[in-house]
Amino acid sequence: MTICVTVLKQFETGIDRNGMMRFCGRLFFLSVVLCIVQQNGTLAWFWPTGPCTDSICVLSQWSVWSSCTLTCGFGLTTRTRSVSTRQSCTGSPCNDRRTEIQSCYPRCCPVNCRWENWLTWSSCSTSCGGGVQTRARNYARVASCGGACNGVSEETRACNTACCPIDCVWDSWASYGTCSASCGGGRQGRERVILVNSACGGRQCSGPETESRTCNDLNCPRNCSWEIWEAWGDCSVTCGGGVQARRRRINVQASHGGSACIGSSEMSRYCNSECCPVDCQWGSWNGWSDCSKSCESGTRQRTRNFEVEGTCGGTACIGMNTSVEMCNQVCCPVHCAWGDWTDWESCSRSCGNGTQSRRRTESISSLCNGDLCAGKANDTRMCNTHCCPADCVMSEWTTWNACSSSCGGNGVKSRTRSIRFYPECGGSLCSNETQQIVSCNRSCMNGGNMTTSDCQCSNGWEGECCETDINECVTLEHDCHPNATCKNSIGSYSCVCVKNYEGNGTFCERAIFEHGIQETLTANEVASSTLDLKTIALIAVTGGLALVGVLALIVLKTRIAKQPDVTLRTAYSNPLYMNTIDNGILETIGNQIHLDPNLPSGSGT
Q1: Given 3.30.70.100, 2.60.40.2890, 2.20.100.10, 1.10.1370.40, which CATH number is that of 339-383?
Q2: CA angle at 582 for the pair 581 and 583, rounded to the nearest 5°
């Protein structure tokens, strides 16, 4: 085969007869024909000496326009064409352009919005209790061609947040949950949540959010369980069907009503019953199946079958009969899509300008240059803009002050409280009770009885609490007989008749013998008397009722101090007057004192 082409050949001097002279820089070039021949596997070239055939350069058709250099906005696209027939000898060259370039505009480019500066904040919606003020801004440039606009045109912030203290309040405990174990001692818990959060310096909630307790603490039934089987023993024969055995032991005995072990502790099986081993061999793989997906990583598979199946203990075929590989691992464009909005959440405040939000998520995310989701994922609005009712808050009661009295019926004690915060926005009113007064220590001592207002003391006691013993003998609040002695005791008194009188004390009478009183004394008793005549006289002047007996003792002392037992009889009918006490002799007026006529001589009056 022979191929001839037109080439440029450099000549030092002269002009080749088959070409034409060209001038390029300082060298002479001639356009000549070069032929190449393939003979017996080798190439040879030569300059033909025959006449040159003129060929006109011919260009091919234009190619299709290339892809735009930009995916959006104004880019460039090109198309080309090549020489299909080359110029030779004196043929016309290809002077027309081989490349064309033109502008392209596949689509507009996304332009993001631009915000102006924020306007000033508006006035607060409330003067206290937590209000809201807003500010807005306008677009300096609106988004176009799918451009994004980050941020919001309006925003809010809290203002005048000073509020009345609100104490934290727990919600009721939830029911206990399921026990962690059905037996053997488990735990179950419950929880509670804060119903009202503390605010503005209110008391924090005390106590835990969760608590637990034991449950189902009865012993769990324990079922019997086996240990794993021991290894099989040696086969009884090496081929043709033998027997081998293995055994197992009890790992856990049944207890607490658990079930007993099922099965035997020993087992046997046939062994070495196989024939001669034949190894498995795979056949060739079949062709690949079509890809399961046109993009985004599909799969395709191929299969193979056994050429020879392994038998009689021969080696099994290694590997799977199915092979799977990935294919078309290019992602598919996926356009973003929003899911539905959620319901509005609970308002952040029950009153006083709260906010509530809702959100949505992408149900389908953009992939592989798919369109992004337009719009925002979160939305917020105002709620519960009315003011919050604040109840009146009273202080705690002070401690009770000391009782004004330790006993009796007039003791009182009191305590007070004050208004800490007045009600607002329809809150509950304050109680008018700022002081409490109660009676205290209402008791009576020594058996006294408490009446409506004071103590009614029992006999022998007096005072506000019946704490003072009355000395009836001093206050003369007794019923002792004039001839009786009053003796005071704790809470009472007693009456004892004086000597020569007898009775129960409230009534005493003399020991009477006809018209007088008889008393027998021994001489020693009379002599032991320490009274003198002057003392007796003084007693007589004061009007003592026992005067007659005393005078008798005086007479006995002065006249018969050294005599044996005598009997003194005194007669009286009128008051006794003492005129003279001289040298132990009494002179009386209005009374006659007679000694017994049987007294010894020497006695006188």
Answers
A1: 2.20.100.10
A2: 130
